[in-house]
Design brief:
- This protein has two domains: about 1-165 and about 315-370, Ribosomal Protein S5, domain 2 (2-Layer Sandwich), CATH 3.30.230.10; about 170-310, Alpha-Beta Plaits.
- α1 (about 60-75) crosses α2 and α6 (about 200-220) runs antiparallel to α7.
- Strands 1, 2, 3, 4, 5, 6, 7, 12, 13 and 14 form a ten-stranded mixed sheet that branches. Strands 9-10-8-11 form a four-stranded antiparallel sheet.
- It has ten helices and 14 strands.
- It is α+β, with helices and mostly antiparallel strands.
Length: about 375
């Protein structure tokens, strides 16, 4: 046995854009198949320390504590931790906050107690990645990700079929609607159940666009091919989801902005996941800044839209393990529990979760008008 033991694990994991599905029809036996783009700027960052009981504090603390206790229950309670949430991806905006939070917490706890993290197994344990595997791909490797969907009775996360780097100079201008949230939870599940059957021809068209235009665009650095493919896929998928979200895009404000951009001849726009966040791809930073100014001038300061320019992230999560002699680690665990303060979310194995304070839904990192 090693004379040192992990006493603290720090994890930083990136957000992602969900660009659409390959096949919602499922006639070949597999359904969904997601396209994802890992992005910088937005991230979930946490530090987990050994402790005598579970506690969490900071943005997204309640959700982090839920995943921690779920992990402990599934793993037979190997130990507890105090989780310090330093930053969290905004909830229910289409940026993959839930999956990244779950994977960050699960990975931190596995490393803290000597396990070898398996991202797919952590996702399954914490019931993430049930339809899409791109959050797992973003955590593991980043870049542009394609998963190959799942069979109807399969409980595993969809396997990653392809991962490609994205040119570092490409950008995405994100459009946030501060007045609305994307579908999630039971409402999201119900929406999928109530959608009409996806046309087989549409699924074939998307797969052709991906393999014969989008992927070659990435491999050859052809931004126009990539952007045009994403644009067309977004309209095909958006029209299918229109009955559930009130239109091709969930937010009327985002829809108006994207329609105006399309009228100006701008390709490469769409909505990430259920939104309401929209995006428009650009070939470099200056173009993104120009579009941001154009949109602000067109829709004015009273618009609910807020903007943020992001770049691609061609690497996955970062994980740092801090070790100490075993005797010192026990002292640190006791001190971590003693130093718990007001505003910390607490849990015990028998009592479940109890909110001492804080734990509100995370919206703190959404952009403001000051950009």
């Amino acid at each position: 046995m090693s004379s040192t033991t992990p006493v603290r694990v720090e994890v930083v994991t990136p957000a992602r854009l969900h660009l659409g599905f390959l096949d919602l029809q499922g006639g070949l036996g597999r359904r969904f198949g997601s396209l994802g783009l890992t992005i910088d700027t937005f991230a979930t960052s946490l530090c987990a320390e050994r402790a005598e009981a579970f506690a969490a504090q900071g943005p997204g603390a309640e959700r982090a504590l839920h995943y921690a206790t779920e992990w402990a229950a599934a793993r037979g309670g190997p130990g507890a931790a105090h989780i310090h949430m330093q930053q969290a991806i905004p909830d229910h905006c289409g940026l993959g906050s839930g999956t990244q939070m779950a994977l960050a917490v699960g990975t931190a706890l596995e490393r803290l107690y000597g396990g070898e993290p398996d991202t797919r197994r952590i996702a399954q344990t914490l019931q993430r990645g049930m339809r899409s595997g791109i959050g797992i791909g973003a955590f593991d490797e980043g870049g542009f990700i394609v998963d190959c969907g799942r069979e109807a009775q399969d409980e595993q996360a969809p396997p990653i079929a392809m991962r490609l780097p994205v040119p570092e100079q490409w950008r995405a201008l994100l459009l946030f609607d501060q007045r609305s949230l994307g579908l999630h939870g039971a409402a999201e599940t119900a929406a999928f159940s109530n959608l009409p059957e996806f046309p087989e021809a549409a699924a074939g068209n998307i797969c052709r666009l991906v393999l014969m235009k989008l992927v070659p665009g990435l491999l050859e650095g052809d931004f126009r091919a990539f952007a045009e493919s994403v644009h067309e896929i977004q309209r095909i998928v958006g029209r299918h989801f229109a009955p559930a979200q009130g239109g091709c895009f969930a937010s009327p404000a985002v829809a108006n902005a994207l329609d105006w951009l399309e009228g100006e001849g701008i390709k490469g726009s769409g909505q990430s996941s259920w939104g309401p966040t929209g995006f428009v791809l650009t070939e470099e930073e200056a173009s993104a800044r120009g579009l941001e100014e154009d949109l602000k001038q067109r829709f004015g300061e009273l618009s609910p839209l807020r903007y943020r320019i992001v770049g691609p992230r061609n690497r996955g999560a970062s994980v740092e393990v801090v070790r100490a002699p075993r005797a010192l680690s026990l002292d640190r665990a006791r001190q971590s529990r003693m130093n718990s303060e007001t505003g910390v979310m607490h849990a015990t194995r028998s009592a479940g979760c109890k909110a001492v304070g804080g734990g509100k839904r995370n919206r703190s990192v959404l952009p403001t008008n000051e950009r």
